[in-house]
What we know:
This protein is an alpha+beta fold. It is built from ten helices and eleven strands. Helix content is about 40%, strand content about 15%.
Amino acid sequence: MTSAPSLRHINPQKHCSFVIKEGPFDLHTSWHYHTELELMFFRKGKVSAMMGNSFTEFGEGELVLLGRDFPHVIFEHSDSSKQKYHDPEGVVVQFRRDFAGKEFFQIPEMTKIATLLSKAENGLHFGAGATTKVIPYINGISKRNSVRQLLDLLEVLMLLSEEKPLRVLATKAQYNRSELDEHRMQLVKEYIYKNFRNKIKLSEVADLVSMTETSFCRYYKKLTLKSMTQTLNEIRVSYACELLQKQHASVTEACYQSGFTSPTFFSRVFKKIVGMPPSAYKSYEGKSLVRW
Length: 292
């Protein structure tokens, strides 16, 4: 992988400080990086990977922690056609360095974890011994309520911070980054978050980055693995969750104030993303949310 990695934009949600994905790995992504750190637990199967400037393989029970802007890609294992493996699956947690607050990891109690996150700049690889300790906290994390997820993530980071010695994945600290991708996605992100409560035309967003609508759709899907419509729906539902939970808005008010124009469509999209209809979410005490 000698070409510059592309920027992968991770869409944040207003009510989520980090993103959890649990299930089959996507083995068709491109060589990429993102500003979030990434914790990746390999639960079943085997994969091949490029991590920084190193080619490697991962199997069941292994875990990696990748720092921000660390280029990586996982793909089908080279022996998959010769041997029968489980379909690769596991848990991925993506989080910003300041996900718990800008100064949280600066307090004395967090010194070890802060050091761990800094050492992850070149990627860290943990074997079976370490993962045995964290499995109770990381397996099934996507199905727990949001407070439990936060506590379990911190528990995982604490346990990993106590592991010695740490195995580094790559030896090269600096990599070629796509400044054009970063500039384009920053423009798109700012525009979407400023205007998501209004009708957004695809042509307007494409014009921001000097592309045709067709080219922009392909480009955006490559960098985010989502369509613009999916992104808008997620952001709007996230904002609706805040209206329902914190501002005690009615379902109808949350629908229109978050940018949806049809209560029926709003309810259908909301249930698909959150896992329950907005009326149930409004009265649900646990606020257990599905991550996407």
